[in-house]
Specification:
The protein is α/β, with parallel strands linked by helices and 114 residues long. It has a single domain, classed as 2-Layer Sandwich (Nucleotidyltransferase, domain 5), CATH 3.30.420.10. Helix content is 26%, strand content 32%. The chain has a six-stranded mixed β-sheet with strand order 3-2-1-4-5-6, with helices on both faces. Strand 1 and strand 2 form a beta hairpin. The N and C termini lie far apart (27 Å).
Length: 114
């Protein structure tokens, strides 16, 4: 199954979202900021993973390094270039992570480069 993931990264926790090729949400959960926890959550989707988005925030380095070392293709989102979808009624960590994964799936993600 072809899937796309995004990690909305914060100082003490992250929200991980995974969507399939049709945009259906197949996984969404708040997790601790620990590479082993994040990698364990992603493991069931590894074979079909097309890419993982991480927003370029003050603390993105460790998660990008861990994902790349595990063999994932990582996309660093440029938050200054991202606009919220106007149809979204509210924004929170869950919807932010899903929106990042959706932008990757739709090939409209504004990226920074690693």
């Amino acid at each position: 199954m072809e899937v796309y993931a995004a990690i909305d990264l914060h100082a003490s926790n992250s929200f991980l979202a995974v969507v399939d090729r049709e945009g259906k949400r197949v996984f969404k959960k708040r997790l601790g900021n620990n590479s082993a926890i994040l990698l364990n959550a992603l493991e069931p989707y590894k074979e079909g993973m097309q890419g993982i988005v991480v927003e370029s925030t003050f603390n993105w380095y460790w998660v990008v390094d861990a994902m790349m070392e595990a063999g994932y293709r990582v996309h660093l989102a440029n938050p200054a270039a991202i606009q919220k979808y106007k149809g979204m009624k509210h924004s929170d960590d869950k919807s932010d992570a899903v929106w990042l994964a959706e932008m990757l799936r739709l090939a409209i993600l504004p990226e920074g480069y690693i």
